[in-house]
Specification:
Structural class: alpha/beta
Largest sheet: 5 strands, mixed
Helix content: 25-40%
CATH class: Alpha Beta
Number of domains: 1
Amino acid sequence: MKIPKVGLKAPDFTLPDQDGKTHKLSQYKGKWVLLYFYPKDDTPGCTIEACTIRDQFQDFKKIKAVVLGVSKDSVESHRKFADAYKLPFTLLSDEDKKVIKKYGVWGEKNMMGRKYMGVKRMSYLIGPDGKIKKVYENVKPPKHASEVLKDLNSNI
């Protein structure tokens, strides 16, 4: 799967959030967007990643950056996940994996020697001009929010 490159326009999409409300990437033009893809709601790594973003969310808000989490889980699953961990940002449901594939995050994974297809933990930092400014290919859940905030603060 091809990964969109830095400098290119981020592929637009329309997806429902945890409340069933539709979001288009293009509606955030003029703002920084952290578009983060994660494998599954309420699993250890995904929960750590979401909670570290939650814990630093005020810093994202201060610089008017938008956070959009994307997985193939349902709207209902996202609602439960967001409620359980009091997540203050948007979770988007991509059950048919169209956006996940468009961003090159669907691929072969390996867990304890078992190979399978799934959503890779990756993120895109999209600039106010709608172009990709950075691709995070090997996201470490406990450090990701701090890494993105550092990049945002150096780019603004």
